[in-house]
Amino acid sequence: MKRTKEICKIIMCNLANWTRNYKIYFVVLTLIIFVLDNYTAVFDFAYQARFRVSPYLFPFCFTHPFMRIVIFSCVIFLFSNAPFISGFQLLLLSRTGKKKWYLAQMVYLIICCFLLTAFLVALPVIRNISMIAFLKDWGKVIETLARQFDIVHPISYQTVSRYSAQEVMVYTVCISILLMMLIGMILYLCNILFKNRSVGILICVALVLLDWFVYITGNITLLWISPISWIQISNMAYARERGLPSAIFSVTCLIILNIILFLLAYFVAKRKDVIEA
């Protein structure tokens, strides 16, 4: 019980430090600018058609590959200094011990992934609340835009025509959290293992650029090793489609990878001098 309380205190100290963390402000501002701009065409059409939009907008955050680059680059930037060592954190570490401190930092990272995903889900809805109608499915605006291919709007025809809004929302939220955790845990582990923090950043950037390469080449075989591409459910195998990773595969694979990275980071951290991280 005492151990849990100490871990919670470390996490709360990290959260309280957000007011002085310039990275938080930069990431939030960047996401507000690009995410809201991503949905401009959708709400312009809804206003002209005099229909309201359903709140199931989050999956279309990732339709355009540029948006995937922006969002996951923000995640890399936010977690680039994991395990978030500072003078104050070193003081906490000396009072609580390495095991509890490192575990608290990993739990804090996971909490950040949940909060960042929740922010992306809520942002376009809150900003355009007067244009939102809480419908059971996609609604007329999204269904109409899905049938009208236009590079300006982010609505995906394959996503809307194949799946229900609830299915896509649950899948995208899960994959978003898991991918953010994957990036965070890669950075966490690499920053502990190597003195040069650019190693973890380069690995994560390579994963983001691999998604872009899959998009421009159309090489569907690379989807099996491009986890960033899995966030777009239209890239996954539909029904009995072969040659593509399935939604179940992507979720299972990311869960296993995150568990492995979590355990590796924890056991390596116990044996590593925190100053070297």
Task: Report on this structure.
With 277 residues, this protein is an all-alpha fold. The chain has 11 helices and no strands. Helix 2 (22-38) runs parallel beside helix 6 and helix 4 (65-79) packs antiparallel against helix 10 (198-217). The longest helix has 30 residues, at 98-127. The mean pLDDT is 87.
Give the tags.
single chain; 277 residues; mainly alpha; globular
Summarize the structure.
The chain has 277 residues and is mainly α. The mean pLDDT is 87.
Give the SSE string. Answer: HHHHHHHHHHH
| Oligomer class | single chain
**What's the main sheet like?**
none
Beta content comes to under 5%
Got a strand count?
0
Low-pLDDT ranges: none
The 3D shape can be described as globular
What is the distance, rounded to the nearest whole angstrom, between the alpha carbons of the first and last residues?
29 Å
Q: Helices and strands: which structural class?
A: mainly alpha
Number of alpha- plus pi-helical segments: 11
The level of helicity is: 55-70%
Write the layout of secondary structure elements.
Blueprint (H helix, E strand, L loop, with lengths): L1 H15 L5 H17 L1 H10 L15 H15 L7 H10 L1 H30 L11 H9 L9 H6 L2 H29 L4 H20 L29 H25 L6
